[in-house]
C-alpha cells in the first residue's frame, strides 16, 4: 500500500473478505461478536465477501447457514474452494468429462454444475480427481483416487488445510486427507485451488471491482499467507487456529497487517491495530522484559514487531505484575 490508512479499520477499505471457519463460526455456532460485527458492516453499506476453503457446502448452503446464525449473507457473497475447483476443471476438460470426486455431496454437485460427470471409481476411467473435505471420506474412495491418479488422471485439491477449527479444538482438515494420497503416491497434487492460492481473493475483488480490499482470517498459513501473496492487507483475529505464539514466529510471507482479538477490531482505529514497535502501543521491551500497561493484545503487537525485527523474545518476562499478567493471558 502506498499510503497507510487512517481512522477506523472498516472505513479504510471498500471490501472486507472474510474467512468463515474460526472467524464467523466454529462448526455451526457463531463466534462471539461475529453476528454484531457483520450486521454493523451491512448497516453501513460495506461490501462483504466470504471466501472459504471448506468444500463441504455450496455457496447457497453457506449463505443459509450464516443467515440461520443471524449473519446477513447472500449466496453471491460466498466463494468456496469447491466451486472454484469445479470451474477450473470445467475450463480444462471437455464437456461431460468424467471426474472422480473425493469429498462431500456439495463438491459432487459443483462438478455437475461445471458440466462434468462425477464418478466414484477408478474403473470408470476418470480423467481427473478432485479432492475436498468431507466428513465421510474414507479408505475406499481414497484408494480409488490413488488408482486413478496413478493411471494418469489430473489431481486437483480444493485446499490443503491441515486442520479445521472446532469448539473442541483443531480437527483433521482436507490437507490431512490430501496427505494420505501424497504419501501413497509420493507426489503433490497437480493444482491446489483454495487459500493460500489467490483464486478466491481474485474472484472477490473482481466481483466487487474493489480498489482497497482487506482479508480477515484466523489462519496464518492460508488466509494471511494468501493475502500477502495477493498483495492485500489483512487482519488476523485470534478466534480460530493461529494463536499469539504463532503470530510471533510467523515468517514474512505469513505476517498480517493488523491483529485483533476478534471482529470487534474492525471498528477500532487503524493505528491501534497495526503491529508496531516499542512505546507505540503502551508497551515496550527492554533487556528481555515486557513493560507498560494496557490491553494484552496491544502487548502482543509490540512483541510480534520486536520478534520480526530480530529480537529474541523466547524467554520474555514481565517487568511488572501487569506485564506478567498480559504474558499469561497471551499464553507466552
From TrEMBL:
Superkingdom as given in the UniProt entry: Bacteria
InterPro entries registered for this protein in UniProt: GNAT-like, HAD-like_sf, HAD-SF_hydro_IIA, HAD_sf
Example GO molecular function: phosphatase activity
Gene Ontology CC terms: cytoplasm
Keywords from the named record: Hydrolase
GCN5-related N-acetyltransferase-like domain ranges (all copies): 289-332
Protein name: HAD superfamily hydrolase (TIGR01450 family)
Higher taxonomy: Bacteria, Bacillati, Actinomycetota, Actinomycetes, Micromonosporales
Amino acid at each position: 500500500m502506498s499510503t497507510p490508512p487512517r481512522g477506523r479499520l472498516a472505513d479504510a477499505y471498500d471490501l472486507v473478505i472474510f474467512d468463515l471457519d474460526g472467524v464467523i463460526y466454529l462448526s455451526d455456532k457463531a463466534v462471539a461478536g461475529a453476528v454484531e460485527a457483520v450486521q454493523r458492516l451491512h448497516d453501513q453499506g460495506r461490501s462483504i465477501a466470504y471466501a472459504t476453503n471448506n468444500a463441504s457446502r455450496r455457496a447457497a448452503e453457506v449463505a443459509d447457514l450464516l443467515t440461520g446464525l443471524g449473519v446477513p449473507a447472500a449466496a453471491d457473497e460466498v466463494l468456496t474452494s469447491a466451486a472454484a475447483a469445479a470451474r477450473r476443471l470445467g475450463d480444462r476438460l471437455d464437456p461431460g468429462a468424467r471426474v472422480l470426486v473425493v469429498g462431500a455431496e456439495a463438491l459432487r454437485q459443483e462438478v455437475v454444475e461445471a458440466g462434468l460427470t462425477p464418478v466414484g471409481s477408478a474403473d470408470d476411467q476418470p480423467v481427473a480427481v478432485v479432492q475436498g473435505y468431507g466428513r465421510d471420506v474414507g479408505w475406499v474412495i481414497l484408494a480409488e483416487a490413488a488408482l486413478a491418479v496413478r493411471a494418469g488422471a489430473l489431481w486437483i485439491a480444493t485446499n490443503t488445510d491441515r486442520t479445521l477449527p472446532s469448539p473442541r479444538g483443531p480437527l483433521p482438515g482436507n490437507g490431512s486427507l490430501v496427505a494420505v494420497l501424497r504419501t501413497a503416491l509420493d507426489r503433490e497434487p497437480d493444482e491446489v485451488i483454495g487459500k493460500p492460492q489467490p483464486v478466491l481473493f481474485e474472484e472477490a475483488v473482481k466481483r466487487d471491482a474493489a480498489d482497497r480490499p482487506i482479508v480477515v482470517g484466523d489462519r496464518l498459513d492460508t488466509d494471511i499467507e494468501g493475502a500477502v501473496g495477493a498483495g492485500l492487507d489483512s487482519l488476523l483475529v485470534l478466534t480460530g487456529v493461529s494463536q499469539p505464539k504463532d503470530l510471533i514466529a510467523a515468517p514474512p510471507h505469513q505476517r498480517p497487517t493488523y491483529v485483533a482479538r476478534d471482529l470487534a477490531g474492525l471498528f477500532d482505529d487503524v493505528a491501534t491495530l497495526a503491529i508496531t514497535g516499542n512505546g507505540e502501543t503502551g508497551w515496550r521491551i527492554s533487556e528481555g522484559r515486557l513493560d507498560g500497561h494496557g490491553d494484552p493484545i496491544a502487548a502482543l503487537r509490540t512483541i510480534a514487531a520486536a520478534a520480526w525485527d530480530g529480537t529474541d523474545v523466547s524467554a520474555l518476562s514481565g517487568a511488572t505484575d501487569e506485564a506478567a499478567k498480559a504474558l499469561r493471558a497471551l499464553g507466552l
